[in-house]
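Per reviewer request, we include the raw input and output of the structure prediction for the construct analysed in the revised manuscript.
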Amino acid sequence: VGLLTETIGNPTPDRIGFVPDRVIARGDLPFPITPQVWHFRQSVDYSITANYAVLDFAQRYRESLLFNIYLAGRNSIHRGSVDTWTTYPRHLQEVKDQIARDTNIGVVSGGRVQTVPDKYYEVLRKPEWRDPRGYILSASEGDFLTATKFVNIMIKSGLTAHRATAAFTVGGKAYPAGSYVFKSAQAFRPHLLDMFEPQDHPNDFQYPGGPPVPPYDSAGWTLAFQMGLKFDRVLEAFDGPFEKIADVIKPPPGKVTDVAGAVGYVVNHKNNDAFIAVNRLLKANEDVFFVGDRSYQSADGTGVMFIAAKPTTGAVLAKAAADLGLNFTGVTARPSGATYKLTKPRIGLWDQYGGSMPSGHLRWLLEQFEFDFERVFPATLDAGNLNARFDVILFPDGGIPETDGGGGGFGGRQPTAAEIPAEFRDHLGRVSIAKTIPQLKQFAEAGGVLLAFGGSAVLGHHLGLPVSDHLVEVSQDGRESPLPRTKYYIPGSILQVAVDNTNPVAFGFEKKLDVFFDNSPVLELAPDATLRGVKPVAWFDTKDALRSGWAWGQHYLSGGTAAVEARVGKGKVFLFGPEITFRAQPHGTFKFLFNSIYYGTSVPTP
């Protein structure tokens, strides 16, 4: 049983005011709340009452519930064993477009609505629109260690996963042993499709030509896209030498090979977990380099990292291979061309009193990949002299306000210093344009690295970089204004961007990348931006960037920039409009964060 409750209240009593539109009972608000002082005990009682109600309902109807969950599972197994079709809004739109092209379609009256001939229904049954019979994640493609994390997430949520015990072929494509397989014929098939297939949100408006009706939460979340996985959708029934994975798994141990005569070792840059190894190597005073030559020891052009051989290197690599499943290959020639020697950075992560959810998720993420960091609060930022303490400062969504008095995540009223214990008083305060931004600019000019993503990408404007808002329209009098919601609206969805993977910020990526986007900033670079040290790293190169979710007016994105690298004095500033670390879920874009931290503090070497 899983219960999600979102209930008002916190330990400090709060005043609930009068809301005229919330005093008439309705289905999702059966007992309207009258104006009163609300105590935390009432919130607790709400949850306890709901829990007892669930337990009471479950014991009263246990036979019906157990039979129905069996029936639902049996039906899902059957649907995964035959040809089925899910009707998506995008497919219906194709049918409507075809109807509109046909002038003599014989529309007839059917009750209160008009109907069209059944041949148009058959369009929805195109063979290529069938639901998949399963999905295959090849052991030889993409970041297979992240694929293993995905498999474990699926197993934890009740899905059945298989692993190939030998090489096999499906649909003319060969797959190696160790590849992962998900068959659709299983009890939780709807969840399986939800994690692999794109969500298709309908164009939902308050009235024709009016503003969109916002979804309660994200409109697109396909986890396989967010995690940057390579997988194949299989439309025909298939089988092979597959064994069921009994429980969550660790990747098979990696290897350190070709050791004899090696001057160094390489590890694939595409693997997120390679950064765990990098952190361990740097803590052990080993020498690690980003490699500018994308073809050096890299068949797919995503590149490698180079570790110089020392007497102590082998032991660190052997442990990382065993723990993480990474493979390290010895090489007898160092990479030619540009390399970037990595240094162990001192990382500061913005936070605020009372907490910030984006900062909290990023804090957890850095811990998982073994980055050392400390939280930094506005008072410390405002005090200046930041270079003495940090090399890199991170600002997730909510860290940088658009205007003074805004930003700061789930702020509300902060307590006074007298209201909280002395050890927390230096956590108080807000990032401000007037006081904080000058200190951040000075930090960058002196060689510091600033990373800002999501809404915090407005930092580029505050620093005076040659960037502006791409999502504007120009009125007849020449004034710019943000695009209205009637023309452009993209709630939490997954979009695709083009990537310059020759830029160290994007090492390890291919040339196309799925990003999580939630009405995120899109930058317009000034014509002289390159001359002023600002380079695009990722951008929207099509008018149909949507991969999963809802993107009304997505054609406005075309030509806009999603990520930039900027020089500020001796330092660097990296801006990412998309939410590259959103809730620590989009593993596919974590490398933007990791690369920026290390490239920003690296030492270029010939």
